[in-house]
């Protein structure tokens, strides 16, 4: 809900003048020098390192007195039910923004209200399914977020200097529709927002458990026994995780793999190519002679593509909104192994083939159970051996972290590979099914013992507090240095081909092993 003209211009002026952006570090309410905007906290300090408040340490002074009378009025009018005890003042210059986030459930109660002062702005609300709604927040309006809008949708402000707004209802609140006959640009001014929240002292028991940090399941996930369980597993252990690690994940993904580049360079100029599961878009700009468009299930990864001026959109690989036969080629790199049943993996392959025109080609990479093949160790594996020789690494978790987080070396996408040091044993692939239903957690740099595994991702934490921490990096909340688990089905030799053979209208042109992955090139007949 957006309530327009909630305060007078005189009150607006008075509130704006009351904010002292002091440079005095001793000031308890001292604003942090954030790259994108100025921030000041009252009542409780909000820590952007863990997106939470220190509930036992209220700031002296509470909320500014000047807020008392307006809060009383809003309580009386019924815009809010409870008196807030925390205030965050954000000041955005034109070009500043705030990343999409959900205010941590366990930190604050249901009602979150934000008063817009100084300049209007367009706020983006995003549903986990990818639906985005742009909401105009006029000057002197109050945004009230409760229920679904507070708990489930993310809110954020895109850093830019102009907003696209409705032309006919220039200063009115509401959802911006895409009616191109009624759009205009609005130049942003300096906007100051007062966000009032009530600190929560008991765990959140909202009905949005998929995004609720209080209700995060501690029980380990098990092998899916139904389609429904498979989608839940993918939602929790693939989609949510990529969304949370998107920024860090992207920073480890810059070097394209040579054979994928070779495929893209071999396509005729002018080919239309879809990258299904494009991640941060590292293949989208490889060959400037192609028309490449990417899609990914993670809105945060798609945002990264867009920031790089690459063409990408959010969609599910099982339902791609492209016409049948519209692509000359497709690539699917490290995607199919995230589907949790054989049927869903085949369905994803079939959907890929559907996009191709007759004669069109698809290149598919999936992670291999066998991390050594034909007695050949990947460059990466050798690299690690050298590293190991140089430096004794005993702790497995540290090792895992090293593997996951090393920057690209020798043209390899290091964070993707987790080769085994041991020689791969043939029997491993015979144990195809997980016998006990709990999914094992893979130890990085060891042989896979199961085809269905959880692979840890060590999110790089922010050492040193109170540095200019990027506020609301990933959606939701986490401690710095958190470990996330991604679900994988690693493929055995022959398994990818076998799956491809069940597809209609395709022939397998090539299949090969490349740096710990099984790969095929398909052609539509
Ligand atoms: O500037 C605003 O209106 C929103 C600020 C916000 O979402 C926050 O501080 O959590
Ligand atoms: Fe917020
Ligand atoms: Zn909750």
Automatic annotation (TrEMBL):
<dbReference type="InterPro" id="IPR051422">
    <property type="entry name" value="AlkB_tRNA_MeTrf/Diox"/>
</dbReference>
<dbReference type="InterPro" id="IPR029063">
    <property type="entry name" value="SAM-dependent_MTases_sf"/>
</dbReference>
<dbReference type="GO" id="GO:0106335">
    <property type="term" value="F:tRNA (5-carboxymethyluridine(34)-5-O)-methyltransferase activity"/>
</dbReference>
<dbReference type="GO" id="GO:0000049">
    <property type="term" value="F:tRNA binding"/>
</dbReference>
<dbReference type="GO" id="GO:0030488">
    <property type="term" value="P:tRNA methylation"/>
</dbReference>
<dbReference type="Pfam" id="PF08241">
    <property type="entry name" value="Methyltransf_11"/>
</dbReference>
<dbReference type="GO" id="GO:0005634">
    <property type="term" value="C:nucleus"/>
</dbReference>
<keyword id="KW-0862">Zinc</keyword>
<dbReference type="GO" id="GO:0002098">
    <property type="term" value="P:tRNA wobble uridine modification"/>
</dbReference>
<dbReference type="InterPro" id="IPR005123">
    <property type="entry name" value="Oxoglu/Fe-dep_dioxygenase_dom"/>
</dbReference>
<dbReference type="InterPro" id="IPR013216">
    <property type="entry name" value="Methyltransf_11"/>
</dbReference>
<dbReference type="Pfam" id="PF13532">
    <property type="entry name" value="2OG-FeII_Oxy_2"/>
</dbReference>
<dbReference type="GO" id="GO:0008757">
    <property type="term" value="F:S-adenosylmethionine-dependent methyltransferase activity"/>
</dbReference>
<dbReference type="GO" id="GO:0005737">
    <property type="term" value="C:cytoplasm"/>
</dbReference>
<keyword id="KW-0808">Transferase</keyword>
<dbReference type="InterPro" id="IPR027450">
    <property type="entry name" value="AlkB-like"/>
</dbReference>
<keyword id="KW-0694">RNA-binding</keyword>
<keyword id="KW-0489">Methyltransferase</keyword>
<keyword id="KW-0949">S-adenosyl-L-methionine</keyword>
<protein>
    <submittedName>
        <fullName>Alkylated DNA repair protein alkB-like protein 8</fullName>
    </submittedName>
</protein>
<feature type="domain" description="Fe2OG dioxygenase">
    <location>
        <begin position="83"/>
        <end position="200"/>
    </location>
</feature>
């Amino acid at each position: 809900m957006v309530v327009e003209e909630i305060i007078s211009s005189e009150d607006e002026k008075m509130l704006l003048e009351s904010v002292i952006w002091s440079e005095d570090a001793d000031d308890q309410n001292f604003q942090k020098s954030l790259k994108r905007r100025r921030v000041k906290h009252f009542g409780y300090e909000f820590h952007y390192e863990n997106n939470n408040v220190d509930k036992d340490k209220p700031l002296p002074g509470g909320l500014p007195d000047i807020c008392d009378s307006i809060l009383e009025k809003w309580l009386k009018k019924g815009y809010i039910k409870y008196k807030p005890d925390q205030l965050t003042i954000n000041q955005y210059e034109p070009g500043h923004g705030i990343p999409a986030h959900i205010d941590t459930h366990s930190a604050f109660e249901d009602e979150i209200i934000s008063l817009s002062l100084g300049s209007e702005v367009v706020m983006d609300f995003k549903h986990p399914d990818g639906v985005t709604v742009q909401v105009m927040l006029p000057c002197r309006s109050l945004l009230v977020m409760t229920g679904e809008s507070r708990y489930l949708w993310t809110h954020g402000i895109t850093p830019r200097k102009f907003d696209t707004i409705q032309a006919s209802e220039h200063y009115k609140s509401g959802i911006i529709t895409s009616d191109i006959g009624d759009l205009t640009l609005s130049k942003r001014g300096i906007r100051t927002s007062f966000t009032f929240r009530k600190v929560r002292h008991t765990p959140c028991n909202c009905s949005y458990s998929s995004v609720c940090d209080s209700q995060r399941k501690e029980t380990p996930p098990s092998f899916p026994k139904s389609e429904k369980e498979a989608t839940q597993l993918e939602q929790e252990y693939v989609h949510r995780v990529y969304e949370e690690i998107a920024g860090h994940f992207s920073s480890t993904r810059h070097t394209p793999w040579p054979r994928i580049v070779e495929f893209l360079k071999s396509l005729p100029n002018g080919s239309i190519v879809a990258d299904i599961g494009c991640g941060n878009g590292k293949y989208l700009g490889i060959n400037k002679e192609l028309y490449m468009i990417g899609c990914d299930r993670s809105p945060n990864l798609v945002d990264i593509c867009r920031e790089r001026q690459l063409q990408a959109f959010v969609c599910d690989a099982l339902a791609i909104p492209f016409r049948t036969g519209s692509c000359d080629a497709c690539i699917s790199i490290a995607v199919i192994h995230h589907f949790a049943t054989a049927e869903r993996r085949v369905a994803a392959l079939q959907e890929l083939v559907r996009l191709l025109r007759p004669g069109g080609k698809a290149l598919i990479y999936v992670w291999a159970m066998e991390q050594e093949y034909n007695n050949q160790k990947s460059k990466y594996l050798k690299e690690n051996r050298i590293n190991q020789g140089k430096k004794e690494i005993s702790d497995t978790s540290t090792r895992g972290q090293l593997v996951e987080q090393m920057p690209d070396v020798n043209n390899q996408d290091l964070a993707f590979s987790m080769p085994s040091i041991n020689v791969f044993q043939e029997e491993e692939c015979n144990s195809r099914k997980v016998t006990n239903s709990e999914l094992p957690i893979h130890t990085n740099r060891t042989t896979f013992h199961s085809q269905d595994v959880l692979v840890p991702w060590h999110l790089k934490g922010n050492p040193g507090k109170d540095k200019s921490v990027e506020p609301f990096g990933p959606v939701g909340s986490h401690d710095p240095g958190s470990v996330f688990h991604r679900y994988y089905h690693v493929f055995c030799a022959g398994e990818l081909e076998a799956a491809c053979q069940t597809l209609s209208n395709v022939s397998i042109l090539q299949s090969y092993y490349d740096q710990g992955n099984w790969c095929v090139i398909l052609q539509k007949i």
